[in-house]
Amino acid sequence: MEKGNVHYDHTVPQPDKFYMPVQCQQCEHPPCVDVCPVEATWKEPDGIVVVDYNWCIGCRYCQAACPYHARRFNWTKPQIPAGDINPNQGYLSNRIRPQGTMEKCHFCLHRTRNGRLPACLEACPTGARVFGNLLDPNSEIRQVLAHKRVFVLKEELGLKPQFFYFFDV
Amino acid sequence: MNPATPATSTPSAPDAPGHWRNYTRFLARVLWEAFDGNWAFYVWMTVLTAVALVGANAWAVQVRDGMALTHMNDHVSWGLYIANFTFLVGLAAGGVMMVIPAYLYHDEDMHDVVIIGELLAIAAIIMCLMFVVADLGRPDRFWHLIPGLGRFNFPVSMLTWDVIVLNGYLVLNLHICGYLLYMRFLGRAPNPKWYVPFVFLSIVWAISIHTVTAFLYCGLGGRPFWNTALLAPRFLASAFVSGPAFIIVALMVIRRVVGGDFGAGAVRTLVQIMRVTILINLVMVISEVFTEFYTGGAHTSSAHYLYFGLHGYHALVPWIWTSMIMTVLAALFLLCPKVYEHSWMLITACALAFAGIWIEKGMGLIIPGFIPSSLHEMVEYQPSLLEWKITAGIWAVGLAIYTIALKVTMNVFARENRQPTSPPSSS
């Protein structure tokens, strides 16, 4: 079981490898939010769990609480070449993080709240990813949940992820 | 030391403002006197100061360049700092094992020395707070944790409970020790109204600090290694071994310095306590190990990594078996009836128990919670040199605080003995 790793250090796919994308599952009951002592992280009304990088004290309790390895700590000051910096920044999403604070997937709030897709969906060459409004019965994600074989990761923990894995077969 | 002029001038002043002024003067005076000592004291304090400065420098570098200088990472998010923090909460809670016999069972032998345990609690809590600050990525934002000033996620976050119980315990013990020493300094019998309720509160509070700290870990459903109901009871059992072990050694050092049979009765009581608690601790370890390994399954992999290594990774295996052997040896020494006669045997037993629990309730508890990671990756952790420097620095500060606190206490006791006319204090 304990043979996995989170690094892509080779060209994919490889015959002896199985690939499993894991990111923040945007839990309905996020343990990372519960444990934060200073309310620096919370679940937004639209379901996205966000971090206030200006308020986080860097205790990393949320990282210990997360069963999905979804949270990352800025162990040092982020170094981004000037040309690579996205000028379109959001306070709760992709702005440059301060050293010593937590960050996580925010489903590109600076894009998705302006009607665009998260960057991972645009980058995916096979269209394997679906993003949308779970409350809208006509959304693509609701079609997938209704008609495909679906599972959630570590369902037994009862955190009710709002991130699903589906199969076509 | 000179006879106290400010204290004796107002021996029974009932007015509060006068006491505030005199209490400040008393603190300044006893602290000033406590920094006076023989050459051994100066060597000891110089070494501690040097180590503390090395630690302070290392921490400054960590704050400037980021925690990448530690060997923690996104898989093992807590390391040596939180390991020491956890152990020291136990040490602080263990100090109360002096208080229970003294006040609950009216053991008169303990009354003089109970303050030694309370001072240990103060030093240990201060070290705890320093370890937490050392672990913060943004120590400049620690004020976000202060109720009223920041935003306090109470009661949902167990860390906010820990902030309350640790600081509360610190204030309680500062009050009890300060009041009792001040009264002895004045040569007056302390008024039970001003300390007995606080002493009983501190007994309950001591249990709460270690229970809450255990809940910090065992409430995390995603970390099966910690997610056990036995964690809090195990914390308490081991705390009631490490606390008395440290106090016994402290009492024997004090007796060597001041002479006489200071604390002899207390040492006997503490040994009797340790004989029980160290066995309870071992029973709980066996119970936990049996449950893990007899059941098996995916949730056992952390325990497997800790005790036997997993898939070729076994950094903690020598540590945990050293801890096991030390604890068992300490138990055997303590159960030997001759342990009272040979001070070397008692000190060895205490040192073994203390070191054994430092490993078990430190690295042996925190690190396997993260290994294998939540996505089943094997990522090992060994503290970096910088982490060891900061850790040593904090221990040096704590030991320096404890040394000065003990000197204050012994000076106040000695001053009382030189004033035979003063009424006997029941402390």
Explain the overall architecture.
Chain A has 169 residues and is an alpha+beta fold. Chain A is 16% helix and 11% strand. Chain A has helices at residues 31-35, 61-65, 109-112, 119-123, 140-147; strands spanning 41-43, 49-51, 71-73, 102-104, 149-151, 165-167. In chain A, the strands form three sheets. Chain A has a two-stranded antiparallel ribbon with strand order 1-2. In chain A, strands 3-4 form a two-stranded antiparallel sheet. In chain A, strand 1 and strand 2 form a beta hairpin. Chain A is globular, with a radius of gyration of 17 Å. The mean pLDDT of chain A is 94. With 427 residues, chain B is mostly helical. In chain B, 68% of the residues lie in helices and 0% in strands. Chain B has helices at residues 5-9, 16-34, 39-65, 80-94, 99-104, 108-111, 114-135, 158-186, 196-218, 231-258, 264-295, 301-307, 317-335, 343-360, 363-366, 385-417. Chains A and B meet through helix 1, helix 2 and strand 3 of A and helix 8 of B.
Record keyword descriptors for this entry.
heterodimer; A: 169 residues; alpha+beta; two-stranded antiparallel sheet; 6 strands; 16% helix; B: 427 residues; mainly alpha; disordered N terminus
Ranges of chain B where pLDDT stays below 50 over 5 or more residues in a row are: 1-13, 421-427
The helix count of chain A comes to: 5
Largest interface: A-B, 44 and 49 residues
Q: What is the subunit organization of this protein?
A: heterodimer
Mean pLDDT of chain B: 90
Q: Helical content of chain A, roughly?
A: 10-25%
Number of beta strands of chain B: 0
**Major pleated sheet of chain A:** 2 strands, antiparallel
SSE topology string of chain A = HEEHEEHHHEE
| Number of strand elements of chain A | 6
| Share of residues in helices of chain B | 55-70%
Return Rg of chain A in Å. Answer: 17 Å
Structural class computed from helices and strand pairing of chain B: mainly alpha
| Spatial order of strands in the largest sheet of chain A | 1-2
